[in-house]
Amino acid sequence: MADHPDDLQGISGLADPVRRALYRHVVSAGDPVGRDAAARSVGISRSLAAYHLDRLVDDGLLEPRYERLTQRQGPGAGRPAKLYVRSAAQFEVSLPPRDYELAARLLAEAVEDDERGRAAVARVARTFGTEIGAEVSRRCGDATSDELVHCLVDVLEERGYEPYDDDDRTIRLRNCPFDSLASEHRDLVCGMNLAVMEGATESLGTGAVRPRLDPRPGQCCVAFERSGSPARG
Fold first, then answer.
1. What fold, for 100-226?
2. CA distance linking residue 163 with residue 178, whole number of Å
3. Which CATH class is domain 5-86?
């Protein structure tokens, strides 16, 4: 897919550090974010936050939502508050234009109905996962299980998965870096993602977390269950 001028225009606003910080705050929040909370998160005035948030909406990076923040109804209840969530739009920029997504779709179609092909994908994905685990080990060295988990979360954050604690027992991945491919080849891509995470956790040699398939709309299909295993070290 060749880049559309709107893609370049849309992401150019993120060069502004304030706008970039606001975007990251909205994305990491998960739930819709109001102007007051966004302003506090980056230490600016509400009016300035509103300006930048609305510019992000104009650029297609955020979407507005309107909700009442109180239970009051009828006259005097006030107008619904304007909230912001990440846009479902996807932006791809490559100069000169490249179309790696098309190549991925063709490869996925070629192996999806082939048992040996699917096994090969799982094997390669698990090997890649061990490379992620090795990166975690290099960063953390001789660490406890809890420290390894924190380091794994940091590495997955850098790779675009956007991990977050859903509760004290589960780490979820808010973003699937392969979302558009998963929409057409869900079983293949989710199995691949699971194999990556299994390879990563197994190479760490800790039972502190266990990856499992737990699909949720708009998120990665893999979640990590904390096992409560005793810390290593």
1. Muramoyl-pentapeptide Carboxypeptidase; domain 2 (3.30.1380)
2. 15
3. mainly alpha
Summarize pLDDT for 171-216 with one digit per residue, the tens: 999 999 888 888 889 999 999 999 999 999 999 888 899 999 999 8
- 54-63 pLDDT, tens per residue? 999 998 899 9
For the entire predicted model, the pTM comes to 0.72
